């Protein structure tokens, strides 16, 4: 009976014939023009191509897939190919705003011209210093200025002479003092020789005059003062006119001096109207501040800031490189949106337009920006900055301190830059689903989804494409070529990694790791080519590096600490199989499952569930098990039993339903009294109708039990029973495959509980007759007989323990409420 569902070695691993390659090694294949590219990702390739073709707003791309599937490398490669076909976008500069210094101006120039313009502005500044200094050192300027001053002095002198003469006629003199002009009365007197003279009146003389005379002098003094003020006002107007004439002279000289050098710099950008206006405003500012240039020439130690005439090359593009492709690996807010930097000077912070730094948005403008979705969401405000950019199609530079600081800080507000870029975000599928669910703007902004799969169909064509992909990776990484046997081993590994004989893993990152490690083992052996033994060594050593915990469990079994029987037969005991997943490595681990059945009405109780060591999926499997028992045995009688099932020596949690069929076999054994073969380990879930359903990790489970059997000693009667639907997933290790070929180990595949219980007990399960009975010697017949006995024993025991009470209770149930006396009610 054990051979009935036994699998042949050919079904345990789908092998790849090395002869089918028709070459001895990958080095015999031609290099190919562009290589194979991405394999097994046709849906993702078409999605990305379509996303690059559509230029409308919102058609940004979100690439989903597992790390190692090639999602990032392919996206970058495809974007660079597309970017090479597009024209290079404009360069961007920030220039000083002469009208609003706190709002620097963003200027666009053709690609590659931004650096030229900044260099030209630096050269222009040096040239302006020279030409302005020379212009104002010429005698022509000094002569003209002296002539203007002489004319002013002559006119001013004439006015003052006129004022003095007019005052003298009224017997007053005008004198200049530090406080201004004063007028002093004059009197006629005689000198020592008796000659008549006019002299200034003394204070005592003035006070000696009568009141009438004093008032006359005061009236004349007022008149003289008014006349003097009018004369001085004329002189001030003339002085203002002199300054204007000198300013016009200086402006004309400066304008004439700077015009040729300004024209040389402006001429290449004559069609750029915003830049032309800036040059006009710059020329006006240079003329207004020509003195700073003269000072800088005459005194080299003078600190004069001319930075406002320079440019800040914000974004520069090479016209030969096409559109930019920026992969921002650290998408912080400032790395994306740019920032205004500050410099500390003596405890104070200073900044200007030259300290405006571009972010990834600006660098990718006109091209493509690639971001890791998880890293974006981990950084404060980065996701909001991306959404704002895509909504407004503008990039503004705003430091976070201005938005979230407790005290507003005065800073620059650079003018925004218009944006035209496509963002490609790369992330896990669950991140895409979360954004779809929680952010209503997400689907408007990222309308293209490109999903990278983890596997692809295994056909002769895909096997060849994977072989060519291996060739490309080997040549790109400068690795040794693989021979045909090694290449076949890689194909078989890819099926094992995909957990399906008819699939191949599409995770190129893991494939590259295998090739690198296989090359290392071949290099250590000084072999010209990588052979099959090197690939197997790479696979085995990777398991060894991560298998410390598995080794400890195996050692505990070997030392008798963990009890797992691999021979004999026991009632109510079976070996279940579990997978322990350590993220980077997983392995199979047998567990002894036991069951006891006894009188009672509690039903099937899982001990782990009672102490809350099981998850919801495992609990669901237990309830399905109970439902199966009810369908199978409780159609003509109530199901009355108490059963306890447990995973022995289990001190951690249990999740999953892959042991539900195992638990059912154990329970049927306990009910029927038939022992189960301990050399056969079991895995598989069960439905309510007794069908065995597929599970995951089938290869690891078989190999885990095989290791235990090999330690205990292979008898040829040992093996693993799996669901029939899992046969396609078998890609067992070569040592297991060899043991099966040698008849030392077996793998059986069953489709129903009946088939499984027959294999474990060696007794037929039994078919249900029309009256609901089973053959007495069958498994189900024995189980139902045991259940019938438990039911009858339970009824008999209840009658024995509480017969009188039951009879009285029955009498009370037969009596109508109105027939019962109040006394009776009180007594009850």
Note down, in words, how this protein is organized.
With 828 residues, the chain is an alpha/beta fold. Among the domains are: 9-40 and 453-546, Helicase, Ruva Protein, domain 3 (Orthogonal Bundle); 142-288, no CATH class; 551-786, Ribosomal Protein S5, domain 2. Helices cover 48% and strands 16% of the residues. It has 28 helices and 30 strands. A seven-stranded mixed sheet has the order 23-24-22-21-26-29-30. Strands 8-13-16-1-17 form a five-stranded parallel sheet. A three-stranded antiparallel sheet has the order 3-2-7, with helices on one face. Helix 18 packs across helix 19 (532-546) and helix 23 packs across helix 27. The relative contact order is 0.10. Mean pLDDT is 87; it is low at 804-828.
How are the elements arranged and paired?
Blueprint (H helix, E strand, L loop, with lengths): L41 H12 L7 E4 L6 H14 L6 E5 L9 E5 L3 H23 L3 H31 L2 E6 L2 E11 L5 E5 L2 H6 L2 H56 L6 H16 L1 H9 L12 E5 L9 E4 L4 H5 L1 E2 L2 E3 L2 E3 L5 E2 L2 H4 L4 E5 H6 L3 H11 L1 E2 L4 H5 L12 E2 L3 E6 L1 H10 L3 H4 L2 E4 L3 E3 L2 H17 L7 H15 L4 E3 L2 H17 L7 H15 L1 H11 L10 E3 L1 E9 L4 E13 L4 E4 H4 L5 H18 L8 E6 L12 H13 L2 E3 L2 E3 L2 E2 L5 E2 L4 H15 L6 E5 L10 H8 L4 E5 L2 H9 L17 H36 L7 H6 L1
Parallel strand pairs: 1-16, 1-17, 8-13, 13-16, 21-26, 23-24, 26-29, 29-30
Antiparallel strand pairs: 2-3, 2-7, 4-5, 5-6, 9-12, 10-11, 14-15, 18-19, 20-25, 21-22, 22-24, 27-28
Helix pairs in contact: 3-6, 3-8, 4-6, 6-7, 17-19, 18-19, 22-23, 23-26, 23-27
């Amino acid at each position: 009976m054990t051979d009935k569902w036994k699998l042949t070695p050919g079904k345990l691993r789908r092998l790849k014939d090395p002869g089918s390659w028709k070459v001895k090694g990958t080095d015999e294949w031609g290099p190919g023009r562009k290589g194979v590219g991405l394999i097994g990702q046709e849906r993702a390739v078409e999605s990305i191509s379509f996303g690059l073709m559509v230029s409308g707003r919102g058609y940004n791309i979100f690439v989903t897939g597992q790390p190692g599937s090639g999602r990032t490398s392919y996206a970058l490669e495809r974007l660079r190919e597309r970017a090479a076909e597009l024209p290079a976008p404009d360069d961007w500069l920030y220039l000083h705003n002469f009208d609003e210094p706190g709002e620097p101006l963003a200027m666009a120039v053709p690609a590659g011209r931004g650096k030229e313009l900044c260099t030209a502005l630096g050269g222009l500044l040096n040239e302006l210093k020279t030409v302005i200094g020379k212009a104002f050192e010429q005698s022509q300027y000094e002569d003209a200025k002296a002539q203007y001053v002489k004319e002013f002095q002559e006119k001013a002198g004439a006015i003052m002479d006129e004022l003095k003469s007019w005052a003298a006629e009224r017997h007053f003199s005008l004198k200049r003092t530090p406080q201004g002009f004063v007028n002093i009365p004059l009197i006629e007197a005689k000198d020592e020789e008796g000659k008549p003279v006019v002299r200034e009146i003394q204070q005592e003389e003035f006070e000696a005059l009568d009141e009438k005379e004093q008032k006359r002098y005061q009236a004349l003094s007022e008149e003289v003062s008014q006349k003097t003020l009018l004369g001085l006002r004329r002189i001030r107007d003339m002085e203002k006119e002199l300054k204007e004439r000198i300013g016009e002279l200086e402006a004309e000289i400066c304008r004439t001096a700077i015009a040729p050098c300004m024209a040389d710099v402006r001429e290449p950008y004559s069609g750029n109207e915003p830049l032309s206006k800036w040059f006009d405003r710059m020329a006006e500012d240079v003329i207004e501040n020509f003195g700073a240039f003269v000072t800088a020439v005459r005194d080299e130690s003078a600190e004069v800031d001319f930075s406002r005439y320079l440019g800040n090359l914000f974004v520069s593009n090479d016209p030969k490189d096409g559109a930019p492709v920026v992969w921002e690996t650290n998408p912080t807010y400032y790395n994306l949106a740019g920032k205004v930097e500050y410099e500390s000077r003596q405890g104070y912070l200073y900044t200007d337009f030259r300290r405006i730094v571009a972010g990834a948005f600006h660098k990718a403008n006109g091209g493509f920006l690639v971001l890791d979705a998880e890293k974006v969401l981990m950084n404060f405000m980065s996701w909001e900055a991306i959404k704002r950019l895509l909504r407004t199609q503008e990039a503004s530079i705003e430091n976070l301190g201005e938005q979230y600081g407790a005290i507003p800080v005065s800073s620059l507000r650079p003018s925004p830059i218009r944006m035209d870029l496509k963002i490609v975000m790369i992330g896990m599928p669950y991140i895409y689903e979360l954004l779809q669910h929680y952010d209503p703007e997400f689907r408007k902004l990222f309308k293209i989804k490109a999903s990278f799969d983890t596997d692809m169909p295994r056909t002769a064509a895909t096997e060849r494409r994977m072989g060519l992909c291996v060739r490309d990776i080997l040549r790109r990484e400068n690795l040794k070529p693989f021979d045909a046997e090694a290449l076949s081993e890689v194909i078989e590994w890819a099926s094992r990694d995909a957990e399906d004989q008819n699939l191949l893993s599409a995770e190129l990152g893991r494939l590259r790791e295998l090739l690198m490690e296989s090359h290392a083992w071949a290099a250590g052996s000084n072999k010209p080519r990588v052979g099959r033994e090197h690939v197997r060594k790479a696979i085995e050593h990777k398991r060894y590096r991560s298998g410390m915990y598995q080794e400890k469990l195996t050692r505990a079994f070997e030392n008798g600490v963990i009890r797992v029987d691999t021979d004999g037969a026991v009632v109510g005991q079976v070996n279940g199989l579990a997978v322990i997943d350590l993220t980077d490595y997983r392995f199979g681990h047998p567990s002894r499952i036991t069951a006891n059945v006894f009188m009672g009405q509690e039903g099937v109780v899982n001990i782990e569930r009672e102490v809350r060591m099981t998850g919801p999926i495992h609990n669901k499997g237990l309830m399905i098990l109970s439902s199966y028992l009810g369908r199978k045995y409780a159609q003509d009688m109530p199901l009355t039993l108490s059963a306890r099932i447990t995973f022995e020596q289990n001190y951690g949690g249990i999740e999953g339903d892959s042991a539900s069929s195992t638990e059912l076999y154990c329970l049927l054994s306990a009910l029927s009294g038939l022992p189960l073969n301990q050399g056969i380990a079991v895995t598989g879930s069960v439905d309510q109708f007794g069908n065995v359903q597929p599970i995951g990790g089938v290869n690891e489970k078989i190999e885990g039990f095989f290791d235990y059997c090999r330690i205990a000693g292979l008898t040829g009667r040992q093996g693993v029973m799996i669901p029939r639907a899992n046969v396609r997933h078998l890609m067992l290790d070569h040592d297991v495959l060899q043991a099966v070929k040698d008849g030392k180990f077996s793998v059986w595949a069953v489709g129903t509980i009946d088939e499984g219980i027959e294999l474990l007990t060696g007794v037929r399960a039994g078919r249900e007759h029309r009256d609901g009975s089973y053959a007495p010697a069958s498994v189900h017949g024995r189980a139902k007989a045991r259940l019938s006995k438990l039911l009858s024993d339970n009824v008999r025991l209840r009658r024995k323990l509480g017969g009188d009470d039951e009879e009285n209770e029955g009498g009370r149930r037969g009596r109508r409420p109105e027939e019962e006396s109040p006394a009776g009610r009180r007594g009850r």
